[in-house]
Specification:
Number of helices: 7
Radius of gyration: 17 Å
InterPro entries: MetalloPept_cat_dom_sf
Keywords: Signal
Signal peptide: 1-21
Protein name: Membrane metalloprotease
Strand order of the largest sheet: 4-3-5-7-6-1-2-8
Strand content: 15-25%
Order of helices and strands: EEHEHEHEEEHHEHH
Organism: Salegentibacter salegens
Largest sheet: 8 strands, mixed
């Protein structure tokens, strides 16, 4: 059964809300013939040490599948890769590959539909000393969107996440909004923070910085993993001029204790 825990929400009236949906189905194996997918069908945060350290996996292969017309911005990908390199030990490198697919025509999406799309489009799984991650850039919105809050992205399972490109595109077109590339970078980094097990969803906190009102998030001001930041002076100010929100020291110490930088 899928669990809905962590959603990345955007409150347009008064705040950005950074949270994500978590979904897991550990027994699901529709399978590409000859490929063992079990290691990539675990719960959110379960592969945090594997993503962070080089103890078992010395490289990371990120497969980004995007719907035609919704390719991620190059600047966002550069920021994203830098974020990963700063927090992980992968001596054999981090590779990001992109592949376009046709629209599924299923928008607005339930998380179950995203899982089905992953089954149909994912081609890379853990192999040897290389850990694989799947990211889907959708051409629409989440079915969970409401009048004043919108899901930007959702981390699900241990190596899977979705970015709702249609929602990001719509918000970036609003007057005085951050650039689309900066919003994409913030969402990518935040969601991967959940794959890293932040906050207390697989990676043990080294200090008291959990947001008791928003599971999986940080209570430290200005941290990338905050659940909500005041709209006028919070994340907007951080993103302005390309200053995408960064992880706070409490979150960084958690990742270091789990094998990261």
């Amino acid at each position: 059964m899928f669990k809905y825990k962590y959603r990345l929400l955007l409150l347009l009236i008064t705040m950005f809300s950074f949270s994500c949906s978590s979904d897991s189905d550990e027994n699901d194996d529709d399978g590409i013939a000859g490929i063992d997918k079990t290691a990539n069908l675990q719960g959110l945060g379960d592969s945090a040490p594997h993503l962070l350290s080089d103890a078992e996996f010395t490289s990371m292969n990120i497969e980004i599948v995007y719907v035609n017309g919704f390719a991620p911005n190059e600047a966002a990908l550069a920021n994203f890769k830098k974020f990963l390199e700063e927090r992980t030990f992968k001596p054999n490198g981090i590779n990001i590959s992109l592949r376009a697919v046709s629209s599924s025509g299923k928008a607005p999406f339930s998380i179950e539909e995203i899982v089905e799309i992953e089954k149909e489009t994912r081609t890379l799984y853990n192999e040897g000393d290389e850990i694989a991650v799947y990211i889907y850039f959708a051409d629409g919105k989440s079915e969970k969107d409401e009048e004043n809050k919108f899901t930007l992205g959702s981390a699900f399972r241990n190596t899977s996440m979705v970015i709702f490109g249609g929602t990001i595109e719509d918000f970036a077109s609003r007057p005085n909004a951050p650039t689309e590339s900066d919003i994409e970078a913030a969402v990518l980094n935040h969601e991967f923070g959940h794959l890293f097990g932040l906050v207390d969803i697989g990676t043990e906190p080294q200090s008291d910085h959990k947001d008791d009102d928003n599971e999986g998030h940080c209570n430290v001001p200005d941290c990338l993993m905050r659940a909500s930041i005041e709209f006028g002076s919070g994340i907007i100010d951080e993103i302005e001029g390309g200053r995408v929100p960064q992880l706070g020291m409490h979150c960084i110490r958690d990742l270091q204790a789990a094998g990261g930088r």
